Structures are given as C-alpha cells and as structure tokens.
Amino acid sequence: MYLGRKNKIEFTPERKEERKAKYSMVVLDFDGTLADTKESIIEAFQKTFKQLNLPPLNEKLFEKFIGLPLESTFKNTTQLKGKSLEKAIKLYRKNYNEISQKSVRLFPEVKETLEKLKQQGVKIVLVSNKGEGALKKLLSELEIDHYFSLIIGEEKMKEKKPSPSVIKEILKKQKLEPKEVLIVGDTKYDIQMGKNANCKTCAVFYGYGNLKEIKENSPDYTIKKFSDILKIVFTGV
Questions:
Q1: Is the dihedral of CA 151, 223, 37, 216 positive or negative?
Q2: What percent of the chain has pLDDT over 90?
Q3: What is the distance between the alpha carbons of residues 235 and 237, in angstroms, rounded to a whole number?
Q4: What is the DSSP string of 149-191?
Q5: Rounded to an integer, what distance in angstroms lies between the CA atom of residue 8 and that of residue 6?
Q6: Could you say which of 3.40.50.360, 1.10.3720.10, 1.10.150.240, 2.60.40.1930 is the CATH number of the domain covering 38-103?
Q7: pLDDT by residue (tens digit) across 49-64?
Q8: pTM
Q9: What element of type H or E holds 203?
Q10: 25-36+106-233 adopts what CATH topology?
C-alpha cells in the first residue's frame, strides 16, 4: 500500500520473490482493467450534467471517453471552461464518491491474481487517470488496497497518459530497467504509455477500450481474463 507523503512517490517493501518471474513489476490501470466502473461513471456524469442544466449525456458516444482525465472528458462532451469546468469536476467527484460504492465490482479472479503476484514478490503498481481520493476509497472498499506498492491517481501525474513520465519516475525510484516492467491496461493510452517508456505492454480485451485502436498500437500481449497475467509474468505457469 502507498504510504508516501502528498505528491511524493514512495514504496512499501514486498516479500522476497519465491518463483522466477519474467517481470519484477506490474503496472495496472483501474477502470476496465481491475474493476467494472462503467455504470458508476455514466451515472455520475448524468447526475452532474442534470445538476448543471446541461443536455443529457449520449451514453454510447461517451463510452469512448471513459478512462481519460476528467478535464479531457468534460472538454470532449461540453463547452465548459475555467471556473465552470472546475465546478463541474468538483461536482462530478462528489457524485461519483456517492454512487460508486453501490455499483463498482471487480472483474473475475482479480483479487486472487493480485494475491498470487504479491506472494511471489512481484511489485504491483496502480496508475490511473481517476482522482486519487476516489481511487483509494474504492480500493479499500474492494479490499485490494494492500496489494499495491504504489497508487498513483490523476493528481500525482504531471503529464497524463500516454506520456511515459510517471513510468520513468517509477523506474528511476526503483532502479529498474524498462524490460523488467509490464504495463497492463484496456485502452490505447495505456499501451502507448508503456511503449513510450520502452516497457512491455499487455492489453486486456474485456475492458472499455476500442479493440481496433488497441490492436493498431501493437501490444506485446493480449488477455481475455485478468488471471492470464500470471501466464505472462511467470515462466511455466
């Protein structure tokens, strides 16, 4: 679990590796990779739009923006700017914190897979465009927060995905080479971030990303269920 001070990246120690792993660290996305959050995100945006007297959200069109930073999502779906945009983001976060408690669910075998990775000494890092407050709250409620060496939300990323800056900072802190790290996510932005950092990438095909766009970015691996990560990380599994 992340224990660092605000805006400072620090890691908690992992137990010693017991089985030979191809990768020392796995960097995971949250929305569409670990958890099914689409329903809660759309509901929170719909409520926010209504409160701001904006036209109803086109859900089908909106789905392609899931996973982007909030500012980018609002800019793609509204004409809000400046103080009005700040107000909308603050209101959305309040709505999401209330709504997500009842609708967010882990995808199958996520908890069991995280447990196996941690038991074998693989560092697990979470990098998400979701606000860090909401992210940590969800991880705690889903009872998986203790699996992560580091949790990075939107506020701690100087540059958002697909920029590799946050990955490069992690590599520097942990004294790891790019070849030792696997980046896992459900959108082209996750894959691009990994490739921009010269790390290996794994695309999940059960999430919210456009499969055509993901394939065009040539991920090194693809999986149809989360537990398949074990086959990639460990030899002989």
A1: positive
A2: 76
A3: 6
A4: SEEE-GGG-SS-TT--HHHHHHHHHHT--GGGEEEEESSHHHH
A5: 5
A6: 1.10.150.240
A7: 999 999 998 888 888 8
A8: 0.88
A9: strand 200-204
A10: Rossmann fold (3.40.50)
